[in-house]
Automatic annotation (TrEMBL):
Gene3D superfamilies: Glycogen Phosphorylase B. The gene is glgA. The lineage of its organism: Bacteria, Pseudomonadati, Campylobacterota, Epsilonproteobacteria, Campylobacterales. Residues 2-229 form the Starch synthase catalytic domain. Residues 282-435 form the Glycosyl transferase family domain. This is Glycogen synthase. GO terms for biological process: glycogen biosynthetic process. Synthesizes alpha-1,4-glucan chains using ADP-glucose. It comes from Candidatus Sulfurimonas baltica. Pathway: Glycan biosynthesis; glycogen biosynthesis. It catalyses: [(1->4)-alpha-D-glucosyl](n) + ADP-alpha-D-glucose = [(1->4)-alpha-D-glucosyl](n+1) + ADP + H(+). Keywords: Glycogen biosynthesis, Glycosyltransferase, Transferase.
Length: 465
């Protein structure tokens, strides 16, 4: 059995969020059992000299346009990745957007990528194509049309991002108008990429069991809940994981001091070093950290409504944010007013590891969270998560339960509930013995992809049986 795993970003080659981490960790775990290769676009910012030019090259025709594709390859941790280079797709200096907003040509860009996925799948004679999020979803339709012997799995990482474009793109892509129906690609007179993945894939997965349930509801379904309900028999929730080798406080070179569950006292050296660097006094206070994109989903409205009250507590808060939004100006204003708040603008992989290692608590007030990886990484590095109980956060963080992944969970997205959760965290922090027990317990939890990879394998085998 041979699998082609397609994603718009894969760590360490390109990353904007958790998708890239998953697109590296899951194929790595699967490679222990089956033959799997990956494919992603070759973006303009990527250094071709670090890649090897492939013997494969081909062209794809989309509507009236023919695109000539050059392929490059590289391997990371034993998994080979193909990179698709062609004008339009490879002209952008970022993945999806610039400071001015989303790229206007994202629709032809990722349409070309979808066509390239189909062509590569045929060239490699794969049995299954595993598609991820809207950037790859149109490939499900084209595989059904041109290579029905190839099975497709489509994973929804975040339903809120659907790939909606003007209906005129149907002609550009050469898609028959018979597919532009409520049961197909049409969504309020727009062409929906993600609906292609849902409608025409053989199996659909979400990144946590709880999220698979939530997207069937009006609250979390992003306008697609009734459409998803019609496909519920092929929808399965499989929990994401992390690469335990990449996220390992015992070997992480980014840290001031390495540590493990049996010598967690060394964790304090990371906290002390970070706070000194940031100029934050009172380093004996509990340190809360937050690492997030600046988007509504991550609960910044709730955080900002609560921030002044939170910062009245005897604690320090360090927030690393990435992206452009009105939230940034408000956070910058708050950081000037409060000496116990430090704001780091721009994501850095090494600095994020340092934050996890330094933090006593991780704050995740997400309004919705399909899975979330930060809470798993935080527990791996001995930071106790304080989370809103939705999606994968509810699957991985448990309060007052003897289950792997102990933390603080608030069930309602209100200022009162968040402040109460912070208070419970502070009470835990005062109980040194219990705090150390929770930290050691969480650090020993298995948040790898190995167990979930077996679930994917089971579904793969069902498709080719």
């Amino acid at each position: 059995m041979k699998i082609l795993f397609a994603a718009s970003e894969i760590f360490p080659f390109a990353k904007t969020g958790g998708l890239a981490d998953v697109a590296q960790a899951l194929p790595h775990s699967l490679s222990k059992h089956i033959d799997i290769v990956c494919v992603m676009p070759l973006y303009g910012f990527m250094e071709k000299s670090l890649l090897q030019k492939s013997e494969l090259s081909f062209r794809v025709t989309i509507g009236d346009n023919t695109h000539f594709l050059t392929l490059y390859t590289s391997s990371y941790k034993g998994v080979k990745t193909y990179f698709i280079q062609t004008p339009l797709l490879s002209d952008t200096e970022d993945l999806y957007s610039s400071s001015s907003g989303s790229y206007a040509n994202n629709n032809p860009n990722f349409g070309i990528f979808c066509a390239a996925i189909v062509k590569l799948a045929k060239e490699l004679h794969v049995d299954i194509v595993h598609l991820n999020d809207w950037h790859t979803a149109l490939a499900a339709l084209w595989i059904k049309e041109s290579a029905p012997e190839i099975k497709t799995v489509f994973t929804i990482h975040n339903l809120a991002y659907q790939g909606l474009f003007d209906a005129s793109m149907l002609k550009y892509f050469g898609i028959d108008t018979k597919y532009f129906t409520i049961d197909g690609l049409e969504f309020y007179d727009k062409l929906s990429f993600i609906k292609a993945g849902i409608a025409y894939s053989d199996i659909i997965t979400t990144v946590s069991p709880q999220y698979a349930k939530e997207i069937m509801s009006e609250r979390f379904g992003c306008g697609l809940h009734t459409f998803l309900q019609t496909h519920k028999e092929k929808i399965f929730g499989i929990l994401n994981g992390i690469d335990l080798e990449l996220f390992n406080p015992q070997t992480d070179r980014a840290l001031t001091a390495t540590f493990s569950s049996t010598n967690i006292n060394f964790k304090y050296l990371n906290k002390k070093g970070l706070l000194k660097e940031l100029g934050i006094e009172a380093s004996d206070r509990p340190l809360f950290i937050m690492i997030s994109r600046l988007v509504h989903q991550k609960g910044f409205d709730l955080l900002l409504d609560s921030l002044s009250e939170i910062l009245k507590r005897e604690l320090n808060l360090v927030i690393m944010v990435d992206g452009q939004s009105s939230y940034r100006k408000k956070l910058e204003s708050e950081s000037k007013r409060h000496g116990n708040l430090s704001l780091q603008i721009g994501y850095s992989e090494d600095n994020s590891h340092r934050l996890y290692a330094a933090g006593d608590f991780l704050l995740m007030p997400s309004l919705y969270e399909p899975c979330g990886l930060s809470q798993m990484i935080a527990m791996r590095y001995g930071a106790v998560p304080v989370v809103h109980g939705v999606g994968g956060l509810l699957d991985t963080v448990h309060e007052n339960q003897q289950k792997c992944g102990e933390g603080i969970v608030f069930l309602y997205p209100t200022e009162e509930a968040l402040l109460d959760a912070v208070e419970r965290a502070l009470e835990l922090g005062k109980n040194t013995k219990e705090m150390q027990r929770v930290i050691s317990f969480n650090m020993e939890c298995d948040f790898s992809f190995d167990k979930s990879a077996l679930s994917y394998l089971e579904h793969y085998r069902e498709l080719v049986a």
